[in-house]
Automatic annotation (TrEMBL):
This is Tetratricopeptide repeat protein. It comes from the Bacteria. SUPFAM superfamilies: TPR-like. Pfam families: TPR_8. It comes from Gimesia alba. Gene3D superfamilies: Tetratricopeptide repeat domain.
Length: 102
């Protein structure tokens, strides 16, 4: 039986081979097993953004900040994702949050 970690590693390998959609499908398998698997949400944010699925990208990046509210990088990633999705005000808010953290 595959573990979330094994499936995540497979998703990354698929992504690195150039198949973003298939990698995203594999991440959905990870999240079906563990809905709070932070690395899967983080990767899903990036993969969705690359595919132009901006609402999904932001939702996954936001979930990362909910799961890791004390992690400055989580808010930086949310800022970058929002910026790349054209949501500048949200990007600025996330960046401000990251700067306010120690």
């Amino acid at each position: 039986m595959s573990t979330p970690a094994n499936l995540y590693d497979e998703a990354v390998q698929i992504y690195e081979s150039g198949n973003v959609e298939q990698a995203l499908t594999k991440l959905k398998e990870v999240l079906a097993l563990d809905e709070n698997y932070v690395l899967a949400h983080s990767a899903a944010a990036v993969y969705n953004q690359k595919l132009g699925h901006f609402d999904d990208a932001i939702a996954h990046a936001t979930k990362v900040t909910e799961l890791e509210p004390d992690d400055k990088f989580s808010f930086l990633q949310l800022s970058v994702i929002c910026q790349r999705c054209g949501r500048i005000a949200e990007a600025e808010d996330a960046l401000a949050k990251s700067h306010s953290m120690r």
